[in-house]
Amino acid sequence: MPQISFKNINITFKQKDKTLEAVKDVSLDINKGDIYGIVGYSGAGKSTLVRVINRLQVPTKGQVIVENKDIGKIKGRQLRELRHKVGFIFQHFNLMNSRTIADNVYYPMFNTDTKNRHARVQKLLNLVGLTGKENAYPAQLSGGQKQRVAIARALANNPSILVSDEATSALDPKTTQEILQLLKKINRELGVTIVLITHEMEVVKSLCNKVAVMNAGKVVEKNNILEIFSNPQNKLTKDFINTTNNSTNAIETLSKQAKFKELAHARRLFQLTYLGESAEHPFIIDLYNKFNLSASIIYGNIEFIQGTPLGNLIVAIEGQLQSIDAVKKYLLDNQISLKEINFENINVK
Ligand SMILES: Nc1ncnc2c1ncn2[C@@H]1O[C@H](COP(=O)(O)OP(=O)(O)OP(=O)(O)O)[C@@H](O)[C@H]1O
Ligand SMILES: [Mg+2]
Question: Residue 23 C-alpha to ligand 2 middle, in angstroms?
Answer without folding.
Answer: 12
